[in-house]
Design brief:
The complex is a heterodimer of chains A (about 325) and B (about 300).
Chain A (H helix, E strand, L loop, with lengths): L5 E12 L2 E13 L4 E5 L6 H8 L7 E9 L2 E2 L5 H7 L4 E4 L13 H12 L4 H14 L5 H4 L9 H13 L5 E5 L7 H18 L2 E6 L2 H7 L2 E6 L2 E7 H6 L4 H8 L50 E3 L3 E3 L2 H4 L8
Parallel strand pairs in A: 3-8, 3-9, 6-7, 7-8
Antiparallel strand pairs in A: 1-2, 1-4, 4-5, 9-10, 10-12, 11-12
Helix pairs in contact in A: 3-4, 3-6, 4-6, 6-7
Chain B lengths: L3 H7 L4 H7 L6 H10 L2 H18 L1 H9 L30 H37 L1 H16 L2 H12 L3 H28 L2 H8 L4 H37 L11 H8 L8 H28 L6
Helix pairs in contact in B: 3-13, 4-6, 4-13, 5-6, 6-7, 6-9, 6-11, 7-9, 8-9, 9-11, 11-12, 11-13, 12-13
The chains are: A alpha/beta (about 325), B mainly alpha (about 300).
């Protein structure tokens, strides 16, 4: 077993609002191994993005109130702001959901792709630009030397996401966090960007944390997957196992709510009943129990912890931990 | 933002490829300049201000070559001359050449206006940027200070300061700017608050940029359009304030001429030598009007949605 590159332990991030304290990340633990692609799935507002931002310490105005983020043996939560700046963009890079707004409209793209090199390696404009143009070419931007002189608005959405990826990779970081990198793109472009991310992962050996709410993306990209619900991890394990035999009712319901090619024809999709819980006022016990069709009396009383269920998976569910298989109409 | 060029593209298949290959880069600034260029009145106003500024800068040249008089050379044998061939715009009660004094006065008036705008913009941008970027208690402290400054009745402050320090051109600019920067700070803060929410700011933070870089490399260029509009509209306002202070005898003191104090001086002679009032009055009127028109034109150029 190799040493994990990034280890998140019992991370808690909260947002103070007028209505109360929002526990956006509520005791999340996982590790990321060198070179692997880890998927984090969950619906909007379940804490995926805040987890990612907390790793980079960019969660403002939220506050990390507990836990640790150990990267290459250092706890990032104890770093000074100046030490954090050395990590950001150099060791851990991030790409965002909406490539249309993630680039500064007033600067040429080449200048922006080269910016991490000027910041972290102290390279001059000329040297960093050569490297930026090279990187733009490698992420599949045609005639990169010319396009580097163009402004962001002259690029299409997919091309801009390529630019963002190039910007993240110039410093060859150890970790690339991709926060819903394809959500704002149309389907054919999505496939291209995912291909690119897969290629990048192989070529640069960059460990990738892929945040998405698209289960199809996870299936095609990730060796391991983490399923989040209401700020907590409800299930974790190898992607194939989690998809074949989900051990948490939430994962089970999620998988039943998406269309499949191999399903019976005319079988209706089954949406998950109810609404995601209010993060200020979580239900007692398991946060999913009001929407769960497997719930037992204990679910509304005690909060289940993430425990091994089966050989390779872990799940936070009283029902499956007691050995019950998830089946149903 | 969809400019006219972008709309045209929608009708042409393959336009995107063309953009990539041949067409020159159409930056935001280029597009704005294109819109400004096609606004004849706005351009005329801008050119007029430019001409006045050049004349003001070259005042010594003009008084040597064109008028052949110095602004303070007195000729008691030629007082109250109406406009004519020797004195193109006439003379005042001491026989001083009005055109020469107007040119030199423009140097003072426009100089003060530009200097004031420069000072107000520098201080206001710094305050507004810090308040908007950092937020929290820094924002509260800075903006309450701005509120306090803006709550002081400007005219009393001007009177008090003028009595205390007998202003020259530079200190007069500082006095006027000491009130004007508050509005700039508010304007910049508002813009920063909105630009700060955009994803590229988070993205820039995620590559490890420091606060200073965030503010002056990434936020400032995005705030620049409102600053340019504020500057061009501000020139007109400041000329009016300065003229008013001169008129009250609190601004530039004779014998140095400014358009404002020429007007003050002329009021006593209005009934028999009205040109002494007309010329500085017309200069103030035209310059302020041009500044306002040009300011509006720039605003329309930067943001065509505001155009009525």
């Amino acid at each position: 077993m190799t040493q994990p590159l990034l280890e998140v332990n019992d991370l808690h991030t909260v947002f103070k609002t007028k209505d109360g304290v929002v526990k956006a990340v509520d005791g999340v633990s996982f590790e990321l191994n060198p070179g692997e692609t880890l998927g984090i799935v969950g619906e909007s507002g379940c804490g995926k993005s805040v987890t990612a931002l907390s790793i980079m310490r960019l969660q403002r105005p939220g506050r990390i109130v507990g836990g640790s983020v150990v990267f290459k043996g250092h706890d990032l939560t104890k770093n000074t702001e100046e030490e954090m700046r050395e990590v950001r963009g150099k060791e851990i890079a991030m790409i965002f959901q909406d490539p249309m707004t993630s680039l500064n409209p007033v600067y040429r793209t080449g200048w922006q792709v080269a910016e991490p090199l000027r910041l972290h390696h102290g390279w001059d404009a000329k040297r960093s630009m050569v490297s930026a143009i090279n990187m733009l070419g490698r992420v599949g931007i045609p005639s990169a030397a010319d396009r580097a002189r163009d402004y962001p608005h002259q690029f299409s959405g997919g091309m801009r996401q390529r630019v963002m990826i190039a910007m993240g990779l110039t410093t060859t970081p150890a970790v690339l966090i991709a926060d819903e990198p394809t959500t704002a793109l149309d389907v054919t472009i999505q496939a291209q960007i995912l291909d690119l991310l897969r290629h990048v992962n192989r070529e640069f050996g960059t460990a990738t944390m892929l945040i998405t709410h698209n289960l199809g993306v996870v299936a095609g990209m990730c060796q391991r997957v983490i399923v989040m619900y209401a700020g907590r991890i409800v299930e974790a394990g190898p992607t194939t196992d989690v998809f074949a035999h989900p051990k948490h009712p939430y994962t089970w319901s999620l998988l039943r709510s998406i269309p499949r090619l191999d399903a019976e024809r005319h079988e209706p999709l089954k949406p998950i009943e109810g609404l995601p819980p209010n993060l200020i006022d979580l239900p007692e016990g398991c946060a999913f129990h009001p929407r769960c069709s497997f719930r037992v009396e204990r679910c509304s009383r005690d909060t289940p912890r993430l425990q091994p269920v089966g050989d390779t998976q872990r799940a936070a569910c009283w029902v499956t931990q007691s050995g019950v298989e998830l089946k149903g109409a | 933002m969809i400019g006219p060029s972008r709309v045209a593209e929608l009708d042409m298949p393959g336009a995107a490829v063309e953009t990539a290959a041949g067409r020159p880069a159409q930056s935001y600034w280029n597009e704005s300049w294109e819109r400004l260029r096609h606004n004849p009145i706005g351009m005329a106003a801008g050119v007029l201000i430019l001409i006045f500024a050049v004349i003001a800068i070259l005042a010594p040249l003009f008084s040597a070559v064109l008028t052949h008089f110095q602004p303070q050379s007195i000729d008691l044998a030629a007082t109250f001359r109406p406009p004519g061939s020797t004195h193109m715009l006439g003379t005042d009660e001491l026989g001083r050449d009005t055109l020469t004094r107007l040119i030199w006065g423009g140097r003072v008036t426009l100089g003060i206006a530009f200097l004031t705008v420069g000072m107000a913009l520098t201080v206001g941008t710094t305050f507004g940027m810090a308040a908007g970027y950092y937020g929290g208690w820094i924002d509260d402290v800075l903006m309450r200070f701005v509120d306090t400054v803006l709550a002081i009745p400007a005219i009393f402050l001007f009177i008090l300061m003028s009595i205390l320090i007998h202003p020259n051109a530079i200190s007069l600019a500082a006095i006027i700017a000491s009130v004007g920067w508050g509005n700039v700070a508010r304007l910049v803060r508002g813009e920063v608050l909105s630009v700060k929410q955009r994803d590229f700011i988070l993205a820039t933070r995620s590559i490890g940029a420091r606060d200073f870089r965030m503010m002056f490399r990434h936020l400032l260029p995005n705030v620049l359009p409102v600053l340019i509009v504020a500057a061009s509209l501000g020139v007109g306002q400041i000329i009016l304030i300065e003229a008013a202070l001169d008129f009250l005898g609190l601004g530039i003191q004779p014998p140095t001429s400014s358009w404002g104090n020429m007007l003050t001086n002329a009021e006593s002679y209005f009934y028999h030598s009205a040109w002494l009032v007309y010329f500085p009055g017309i200069m103030i009127f035209v310059t302020v009007l041009a500044s306002n028109i040009f300011g509006n034109a720039i605003r329309d150029a930067f943001d065509p949605r505001l155009k009525t």
